[in-house]
Amino acid sequence: MAVVATSTSTEMRSEKLIKEQMENEGIRKDIDVTQLYLADSDLQSVTNLSRFKMLKNLYLNGNKLRRINCLKFNYRLAELYLENNQLVDISGALKHLTSLHTLMLQRNQLTKLEETVQEFKAMQSLKVLNLFSNPLAQEHEYRMYVIHFVPSIELLDRSEVLKDEQDRANQLYQQEREVLKQSIAFGRRCEGPPIRGATPVVEDNHIYDPKKLVANNFHSPPLQNPDDAVTARANNRSVMQYSVFDWSKVPKLEERRQKEPTDPAPVPQVITVRFK
Fold first, then answer.
1. In whole numbers, what is the pLDDT of the chain averaged over residues?
2. Which InterPro entries does the entry mention (predicted)?
């Protein structure tokens, strides 16, 4: 009963703060509220804010919030400040806020990386995200994980997301796709051995019998020996070279997550194949 009473009292206090703010700004209708400042108010819970349909900026930082359950219908939120609280879980609380482009969650108590990132996957406009000073930020490959599963992020934990980081994240978490891409991208012609014979000539009947092929060109006489002609024709073929990454020795996501952060990151080997 004491917990319920405390929660109710803080909700009433947040309601009072909202009323005072609207009066100070001369706002009479809930629909005209686009910004609310409830920071540093020692709040453990916040009154339901669903009635503020046009709310875009919300400051709840510097309180004692452990969970967020006051934003069920605030779909227009663009900036949400929740840093310096006591949040332990945000599952199901933010994923519907698809208009967010700035989200501050640093200095909380979030521990579950997968569940937390799951909240951001539908936020295609999310550009700025802070998660540092949470236990989950200590997990191995934390930054790569967030960059891969929230590709819209441009600034993560006050550091710009670089193209090299995006490529590395794709290599870590989309290994099968990267293997296919590398196998296609690395295919190229390379310089073959020197020509030792003449260009082979095929008879008019188009029957590709090696014994009937006789090599010839404008600079050398016809080869009388069919075996020499076949050898000359083989030497004239272009040599192809393909290089691919061998990902079989690189541990998958579950295995990497179990490794210690100090363990060196495995580097895939390059396999090169040449043929004619």
1. 80
2. Leu-rich_rpt (IPR001611), LRC72 (IPR042655), LRR_dom_sf (IPR032675)
Which band of pLDDT confidence, cut at 50, 70 and 90, is reported for residue 228? confident
Q: Where are the domains of the chain?
A: 2-173, 175-275
Q: What is the average pLDDT across 51-72? A: 95
Dump the DSSP string for 71-115.
-TT-TT--EEE--SS-----TTTSTT-TT-SEEE--SS----HHH
In terms of pTM, does the model score above 0.90? no
State the CB neighbour count (10 A cutoff) for residue 19.
10
Q: Parallel, antiparallel, or unpaired for β 57-59 and 128-130?
A: unpaired
Taking domain 2-173, whether its CATH number is 3.80.10.10 is answered by yes
Q: Give the burial class of 246: count Cβ atoms within 10 A of its Cβ; 0-12 exposed, 13-18 middle, 19 or more buried.
A: exposed
* φ/ψ of residue 260, rounded to 5: -75, 145
Determine contact, residues 118/146, Cβ cutoff 8 Å: no
pLDDT bin (cut points 50, 70, 90) of residue 271 is confident
- How long, in residues, is the chain? 276
